[in-house]
């Protein structure tokens, strides 16, 4: 009898070890900007929308279909969606997007969402049918949690009463801390792009991280806004893509044991990090938008204490085999137009030749950055040399930093020492 008991105990112990070391497969998508097909139709309104945003609704729906089919085939355990789920918070877009997720849920994948700045209380929620756009119903914060009850909120272990942040248990050794960093309660006539973590939410999260540390739990973070810079001077020129007081909060979280946060908002594929004075590092794993080139999504394996990250790109869809080239050109045109407008609003007497050179640099740097891990080609280097020459400067290209250290598309992050 004792021998049988010993064999049984050893067998159960072996199963426990097997389960503990079994990889957890995690996917991350963000900034889908889903717009319901029922809210668009041919006409000037929709044509103007496509021209301004570069988003053809039918194309983007097929991109999403390709991604979700791949996740089903990969038998993903967890799907993280870090905000800007809809175009402008349209209720119908939320409803249709949820239906897109049903097959993945039916297979057993657990899906967790947080809102972005385009998802709740959006005053510019519109349909694009005929010659003029028309207002449509958006949703409140309470309605967001009701609609996405099966996607994080109903199974939350703890909820923050000051925001839509929540904690959920992935398994015995992994928790997910999902942050709501948006300002939708402050919206009046338009959305607010910038984000923050409320002091009360920060205290709530730190209490969770302390308990996790005591239990030896790995905590994964998720939020819409970036928690660290991804490019030099991001806080100067693109502050709205970072949470307020990001330096301080990033170091506080790093010292509290939060090692990785999955983000979006900036529409680029980039991994960056910050190390606190105490020597603790936090990684911001930002995934590019599924609404524009390069149509990126992450598939990751969490095994033991290591997170192995891989990035995939949608290059073609049934209705457009040249998707990548088509949308790269769209992004080029939109970036050029945006850069030119911003240069004009500076109110500085910049000669036309210099404006053109600077615009070329901005466009090509953006195309390089959105995909991640791209090395500057000769054309971009020549653009930079030309611009520097117009300023009367010489530049050593070997010392020119396009991105912060850390691979962006394939890498491994050790979550615990």
- Quickly count the helices: 11
Output the CATH topology of the largest domain. Answer: Purple Acid Phosphatase, chain A, domain 2
Q: Number of domains in the coordinates?
A: 2
Mean pLDDT: 88
Question: SSE string, helix = H, strand = E?
Answer: HEHHEHEEEHEEEHEHHEEEEEHHHE
What does this 3D model show about the protein?
With 417 residues, the chain is an alpha/beta fold. The chain folds into two domains: 302 residues, Purple Acid Phosphatase, chain A, domain 2 (4-Layer Sandwich); 75 residues, no CATH class. The chain contains eleven helices and 15 strands. Strands 6-7-8-9-10-12-11 form a seven-stranded mixed sheet. Helix 4 links the parallel strand 2 and strand 3. Helix 10 packs antiparallel against helix 11. The protein starts with a helix and ends with a strand. The N terminus is likely disordered.
Descriptive labels:
single chain, 417 residues, alpha/beta, Purple Acid Phosphatase, chain A, domain 2, seven-stranded mixed β-sheet, six-stranded mixed β-sheet, 11 helices, 15 strands, 38% helix, globular, disordered N terminus
Brief summary of the model shown:
The protein is an alpha/beta fold and 417 residues long. The protein has helices at 2-21, 44-53, 57-73, 91-107, 141-147, 199-215, 234-237, 246-256, 323-345, 352-371, 378-390, and strands at residues 24-29, 78-82, 110-114, 126-129, 132-135, 158-159, 166-171, 174-178, 218-222, 260-263, 270-275, 281-286, 296-303, 306-313, 411-414. Helix 3 runs parallel beside helix 4 (91-107) and helix 9 (323-345) packs across helix 10.
